[in-house]
Amino acid sequence: MKQKTLLILGARSEVAQSIAELFGRNGFDVLLAARNADKLSSLVADLQIRTGGNFQSVEFDLLHTQGHLDFYNALPARPDVVVCVVGLLGNQQEAEQDYGHARLIIESNFSGVVSILHVVAADFEKRRAGHILAIGSVAGDRGRQSNYVYGAAKAGLATFLSGLRNRLHNSKVKVSTIKPGFIRTRMTEGMKLPPFITAEPIEVAKAVYMAYVDQKNVVYVLWPWRYIMLIIKSIPEFIFKKLKL
Amino acid sequence: MFVQEVYNWGRYPRQYAEVVPVRDLETLSEKLSSSQPWLARGMGRSYGDTALSSQILDMLPLKHFLRFDEQTGELEALAGATLDDVLKVFVPKGWFLPVTPGTKYVSLGGALAADVHGKNHHSEGSFSKHVRSFSLLTEKGELLEVSPENVDMFQSTAGGMGLTGIIVKLVLRLKPIETSYIRQESFKARNLDEIFALFEATQYATYSVAWINCLSQGQALGRSILMTGEHAFSDQVRGLKKTLLASHSNPKLVMPVDLPEVALNPFSIKAFNLLYYHKQIADKSTSIVHYDPFFYPLDSILHWNRMYGKRGFTQYQFVIPQEAGLPTMRSILQKIAQSGQGSFLAVLKAFGEQNDLISFPMKGYTLALDFAISDQLFPLLDRLDEMVLDAGGRLYLAKDVRMSADLFHKSYTRSAEWIEILKGLNPNCTFRSVQSDRLKITPW
Ligand SMILES: Cc1cc2nc3c(=O)[nH]c(=O)nc-3n(C[C@H](O)[C@H](O)[C@H](O)COP(=O)(O)OP(=O)(O)OC[C@H]3O[C@@H](n4cnc5c(N)ncnc54)[C@H](O)[C@@H]3O)c2cc1C
Ligand SMILES: NC(=O)c1ccc[n+]([C@@H]2O[C@H](COP(=O)([O-])OP(=O)(O)OC[C@H]3O[C@@H](n4cnc5c(N)ncnc54)[C@H](OP(=O)(O)O)[C@@H]3O)[C@@H](O)[C@H]2O)c1
Q1: Could you report the per-residue pLDDT of B160-175, keeping only the tens digit for each?
Q2: What is the pLDDT of residue B261?
Q3: Ligand 2: does its nearest atom lie under 6 Å from the Cβ of A202?
Q4: B103 within 8 A of B82, measured Cβ to Cβ
Q5: Dihedral pair phi/psi, residue B147, rounded to 5°
Q6: DSSP E strands: which ranges in B175-312?
Q7: For atom 53 of ligand 1, which residue has the closest CA?
C-alpha cells in the first residue's frame, strides 16, 4: 500500500512538531512547511530518530498568497492529509492603533489560510479524497476586548471551514476544525495560564490525530472548553459588553 | 522573556528571575552580547542555588536529537533533551544511559554540568566519562567543540556548574542492553560494619547502592539494605515479561499540595524507615525488576518534593575518602541520629576512582540525606561539615545550598586551578550563579 503523506503548514510551532511526531509514528511521511525551512534541519533529524519515519522540510509563507499554487504543485509528494497550524496572536492594542498590524493578524489567521486551503481543496476535490484539518481557537467563539482582532480572524476561519466542509462533503473530502483553549507554547510564553484548562502541545496533537481517525467535524481540545464556551456564548450581549474579558 | 519565581528541587531558596526560553542559537548569542550576567538552567533538579540567578537561560526548548549511530550507540543531542526523553526513544531500540542519577527528569546539559554519578560509579565512572565531546558557547560568543583531550576545558565544564559557558549539545555513548530489566539482588545489613563489608564483597556488581536507616542507633547504627543490579539478559526475562525492551510510562501519582510540616516528625520517619527495612524478610533476595523502579523509585510520584512542607528542604550529600571510611561515617551517623532531624531517605554508595578538576566523586563513600529546612538545621550541618572536612571529604555542589566559601575552597583541593581556567573562559564573569557568588568563586 502506498505510504500516506501529511503536509503540516506552520511546522515550527511546538504543536506542529507534536503532530508531525504522532503522524510519523503512525506511518505517515511528513512534509514540514514553514518560513525559513532551512533552519528546520535539527527538527527533521530529531523526528527521524524518534520515529524512524520520513520527514522533509519545505519553504512556505502563508502571506505569500500568489505563490501558494506553485508551492503546492512543487511538493515532493501529493498530501493525503493537510494540517494548518499557522496562527498569529499579535498584539491587540497595536492592532487597534495600526491597521497594518491588524491586517497582519487577519491574514495570518484567516485570509492566508483561505488562499492555501482553497488550493488544497481543489486538488482533494478532484481526487475525491483527503482530509483538511485546521487549528482555530475558542477565541473565535466570541469577541472579547483583550484579543478581538485575533478572535475575529479565528471566527472567520471557523466559518470558512464550515462552508468548506459543506462544499466538499459530496466529494468525500473531510474537513475538521480544532479549537484549543490555552496551549503551553511560545505563543503564551510568560502568561499565567490556569493549569487545568491549559493543554500541552502533545494533547492538541492527539486531538488532531483523533479528529483525523474519527473524521470529526469540530473538536474542542480539553473537554471543559466546550462548556466554558457554551456559557460564554450564552451571555446576553447587553451584559457581555460590560464584562472585563 | 519574563520574570517569574524560580526555585530548584529543594524549593529553597526562591527568587524572582528573568527567564529566557532558548529556542535557537541566535537567542543565545544575542543575550550573551548584552553584557549582563546569565546562567544556563535545565530541569531545575539540582536542589539548592546552583541553578539560580537573576537572569536565566532556559535550555529546555533546545531538545532535539541530532544524530544516532545504531552501530556504536553514539547519540548527538541538544543540551535541553532530558534523560526521560532519551530512555523513551532509545530503550526500545536496545540502548540505555551509560550513567544515570536517581531521577530521569534531568537535562543532558545539567547532567554534564554537574558531572552526575549513578549506581555504577564504582564500575563505570561519572557521566562525563561517557561524553565524547560537547559544544560550549563561551562568553565571547565562540562555539567551541570540546573533547576530553582538551583537558582544561573539558574538566572545568564537567562538574563546573555552568560557569564555563553554555553547553549547547553533546555526544553521549549509550550502552547496549538486551532487555529493559534489571536482575536485582538485595542484601540485609544489620549495622555499619556489615554494610561496609557488603560493599567490599559486591564490587563485582555493575550497580550498587544502599538505603540506610539514619535513625537507628547503638548496635543497629547503619542498619541498611544493599541493592545490586545487572542488566538482565533476554533468556532471564523471556516468559516473565511481555516485551523485552519496554520503556517506562509517565507517572500517575501526583503530590497535590504541600504537606504540613508535622508529617515529617521523627516518629513518622521512623515508621517509614522500619517499614522499608522489614519489607524484605530474607537476608538476601533476587528479583527481576524494570529499570524504572530500580533507578528511579521516586519518579513515580510527581512533585514529591512537596511533602517537605512550605519551607522546603535540602539534601546534604558528602563524600569521604576510602581511608576515612568507617570511623568517620560512624561519627556522622551518630550525630545525625542524635539530632532527631533524621532524613526520610538516606542513600549510601561506594565511589570508584576519580580525580578530575572539579567533579564531586572521589574514591570513597558518599551519603545523601534529606532535611526539611528548619531553624535548628544549619547549626547541625555546620557540625557535619567539620567532620567531612577533617576526613578529607567534600559536599556535592548540585545539592549544596549553604556551605561556607571557606569549606568549598578547602575541600575542593583544585578549586584555585579551576577558577584560573574560568577566568580565561569567562573573563567578564558573565556566567555566575547565586551559589558561585555565595562560595566566592565569582566575581573576580
Ligand atoms: C530525586 C533526585 C535524585 C538525584 N539523584 C542524583 C544522583 O544519583 N546522582 C547525581 O549525581 N545527582 C543526582 N541528582 C541531582 C541532579 O542529577 C543534578 O542536579 C543535575 O545537574 C540536574 O540536572 P538539571 O537538568 O535539572 O539541571 P539544573 O538543576 O537546571 O542545573 C544544574 C546545574 O547545571 C547547569 N546547567 C544546566 N544546563 C546547562 C547547560 N546547558 N549548559 C551549562 N550549564 C548548564 C546549571 O547552571 C546548574 O549549575 C538528583 C536529583 C533529584 C531531584
Ligand atoms: N497557544 C495557545 O494558547 C493557542 C490557543 C488556541 C489556539 N492556538 C492556535 O494554535 C496554533 C499553533 O500556535 P502555537 O501556540 O504553537 O504558537 P506558535 O509557536 O506561535 O505557532 C504559530 C506558527 O505559525 C507560524 N506562522 C505565522 N505566520 C506565518 C506565515 N506567514 N507563514 C508561515 N508560518 C507562519 C509561525 O511560524 P514562525 O515559527 O516562522 O514564526 C509559528 O510556527 C495557532 O494557529 C494558534 O492560533 C494557540
Answers
A1: 999 999 999 999 999 9
A2: 55
A3: no
A4: no
A5: -120, 170
A6: 175-176, 181-189, 207-212, 224-231, 253-254, 284-290, 301-302
A7: B45
Tell me which residue has cell 531500540.
B93
Which residue do the cell numbers 506552520 mark? A10
Q: Cβ contact (<8 Å) for A189 and B24?
A: no
In Å, how far is B65's CA from the nearest CA of chain A? 5
A186 to chain B: which residues are within 8 Å by CB?
Answer: 21, 23
Nearest residue on chain A to B69, alpha-carbon basis: A49
What ipTM is given for this predicted complex? Answer: 0.92
**Residue A188 touches partner B, C-beta closer than 8 Å:** no
Out of B163-172, B174-183, B338-347, B419-428, least confident range = B338-347
What is the residue extent of each domain of chain B?
65-177, 181-408
Region A5-240: CATH code: 3.40.50.720
pLDDT classification of B270: cutoffs 50, 70, 90: low
B91 DSSP assignment = T
Q: Which residue's CA lies nearest to atom 24 of ligand 2?
A: A86
Q: Are A9 and A82 in contact (CB under 8 A)?
A: yes
What's the CATH architecture for B181-408?
2-Layer Sandwich (3.30)
**Is the distance from the beta carbon of residue A61 to the nearest atom of ligand 2 less than 6 Å?**
yes
Topology match between the domains B65-177 and B181-408 = no
Residues of A in contact with B89 (CB under 8 A): 49-50
Beta carbons of A46 and B68 less than 8 Å apart: no
- Sketch the domain layout of chain A as residue ranges: 5-240
Place of cell 508531525: A20
- Residue of B36, B67, B34 whose CA lies nearest to B135: B67
**Secondary structure class of A210 (helix, strand, coil):** helix
Q: Measured between alpha carbons, how far is B412 from B394 in angstroms, rounded to an integer?
A: 7
CA B122 – CA B292 distance, rounded (Å): 21
What is the dihedral angle through the alpha carbons of B197, B203, B209, B214, rounded to the nearest 10 degrees?
20
CB-nearest partner of A45 from B2, B24, B67: B67
**Sign of the dihedral defined by the CA atoms of residues B431, B436, B437, B443, in that order:** negative
Q: Is A46 on the interface with B (CB under 8 A)?
A: yes
Candidates A46, A70, A96, A6; CA nearest to B169 is: A46
Under a CB-based contact definition with an 8 Å cutoff, are residues A140 and A179 in contact? yes
Is the CB–ligand 2 distance for residue A29 below 6 Å? no
Chain B contact set for A189 (CB, 8 A): 2, 21
Cα(B300)–Cα(B293) distance, integer angstroms: 8
Q: CATH top-level class for B65-177?
A: alpha beta
Question: Within the 213-242 window of chain B, which residues sit less than 8 Å (CB to CB) from chain A?
Answer: none
Lowest mean pLDDT among A64-73, B256-265, B301-310, B371-380: B256-265
pTM: 0.95
Decide if B191 contacts B221 (C-beta within 8 A): yes
**How far is residue A176 from each of residues A32, A86, A233, B370, measured CA to CA in Å?**
19, 15, 21, 52
The CB of A34 under 6 Å from ligand 2? The reply is yes
Is B65–A50 a contact, with Cβ atoms under 8 angstroms apart? yes
The reply to whether residue A45 touches residue B65, judged by beta carbons under 8 angstroms, is yes
Min Cα separation A191/chain B (Å): 9
| Residues of A noted as catalytic | 150
Spell out where B181-283 has E strands: 181-189, 207-212, 224-231, 253-254
